[in-house]
Write a structure and sequence with these properties.
The complex is a heterodimer of chains A (about 300) and B (about 270). Helices cover about 75% and strands about 0% of the residues of chain A. Chain A has about 300 residues and is mainly alpha-helical. Chain A has one domain: MetI-like fold, CATH 1.10.3720.10. A two-stranded antiparallel ribbon of chain A has the order 1-2. In chain A, α3 crosses α13, α6 packs parallel to α11 and α8 crosses α10. The two termini of chain A are about 15 Å apart. In chain B, α7 packs antiparallel against α10 and α10 runs antiparallel to α13. Chain B is globular. Classes of the chains: A mainly alpha (about 300), B mainly alpha (about 270). Chains A and B meet through α1, α2, α4, α5 and α6 of A and α1, α4, α5, α6 and α7 of B. Chain A: It is a multi-pass membrane protein. Chain A: It is found in: Cell membrane. Chain A: Belongs to the binding-protein-dependent transport system permease family.
Chain lengths: ~300, ~270
Amino acid sequence: MNLRAFSNLRRNYLRNSASDVSESSLAFWLLLPAVLLLALIVVYPVAKVIHDSFYSISLFSESGPAFVGFSNYVDAMRDPDVWRAVRFTIALCVVTVPGALLVGLGLALLANREWKWRWPVRLALLLPWAIPLAFSGMIFAWFFNTEYGVVNDLLRRAGFAPISFLLIPQWSFLAICIATIWKTSSFVALILLAGLQTIPRSLYEAAALEGASRWQIFRHVTLPLLMPAMMIALIFRTISALQSFDIPYAMTQGGPARYTETLSILINTTAIEYMDVGYGSALAVLLFLLSMAISSVYLRKLYKGAL
Amino acid sequence: MLKLPLRWIAAAVLLINGFFPAVWILLTSFKQDAELAQTPITWWPQHPTLDNYVHAFSDQPLLLFLGNSFAVALLSTLLTLFAATGAAYALTRLRLRRRGLTLTALVAIAMFPPATLLVPLFEIMRGLGLINTYGALILPYAVQSLPVCTLVLASFFQQVPKDIENAAMLDGCTRLQALYRIVLPLSAPGVFTAGILAFVNAWDEFLLALALNAAPGSRTLPVGILLYQGEFTFPWPVISAALVVAIVPLAILIILFQERVISGLTTGGIKG
């Protein structure tokens, strides 16, 4: 969606080198609100988090912050809770990102068809988007309830024994994945639908004239032209999956036995509930580095596509 | 590739996937408490009642939560649109050094996990005296939506022909007037799309709302609805009624504007 915008902006920039001084100053004033907001909400907090991560700061102790160098980071590396949260967060990404892309692609292909059932499909596509993450988590926690959940009701009807989904680690992972895919495939579908609509109809007509099968058309026309939109969906989805908080928190509060604790939940618990600010900040920096490392791979691909 | 029955099955699965949770809480909101304690569970309400809706409003200040969510979402959307309009216009139309860098920085911002900024945000908001006020949420929400909204608006601004703008300026408009009188109205679908994206994002947010605005008077819907559960009780029919009340406004908004939301997002992508 934003890919073309990106490359066009660059091209226009190269084209309009002639200009005047008043334009630069107007540009300054127009950019000012955005820059001020970013400075207050992002730049300063990021600097503060990095700074705090080198201190031992506990809001419970009377003495002030003490500089401890890298010891928060060393502690984090040795902390089994951190590694468990990293493993769980990455596992969540590995399952839910492709899952949401696949379901989102299905929804987008259906919503893109010219047929009379298009509006219910579009509504089905938008509805999960309109239900806040935390609510989705609550609703799915209930669906997977051992006694009163819909899922176990269906299992019973099919003759299986009910499963305590949210009390057994592996099953709660599955339940959280399903809830996450359900909620996030909606936004993916929106992005992919935008991508689908950019594919010229004439290409399909030409391919059909050549006698291509539906699968061939999908494979050789739709899929390649959908790649930019797929990349954007992939980036957004991966970043937000790494930051997963709402759905696991609402479904299990990180349980059973902290098994479903994501990095975001761990940071929230450490820094806000236990007020261990220094250590929480170090964890925050690590999460940010992880997000950057993963998304820089994507961004490089995106740039290569754009230029 | 798909044979007809297979396509219909796929459609049915995806439709059920989209609608089922919403339909389920709607059905539950009319059930009586006793019905929820039955096993096997019932799917259709046996003795429909509206009591849960009465309880939803009387057990917790649901109207207050709704009002808070609405105010926060609307105000942060307006702030985002204001900042994003300026930024998008500067990036698309004006001479600017380091344009590429600015754009990259904008995308990179989307990568800061809210959880990582929680502690300093808490301190900033406390320093500004904004904890438990709308301001504590409006500012971060506006920033969260800023990158996407700027890119959407930029791609719409690109589609407005420069000639129209130049003509307006020959007729005596300043550049700023050209922006507000010509470019913005012509980009109305883009403004609308960006607005909806920002609004939904703010309406959805939970982590910051939980950390920054947890006081009784300033809770937003996602935080407030958690309060219906007791320590050991989970009054699902009442929670369902509250969820229905919470979801309906946005659902109506989206049903009314579904064509515009989708066409806004899609035209944003076509030309760019």
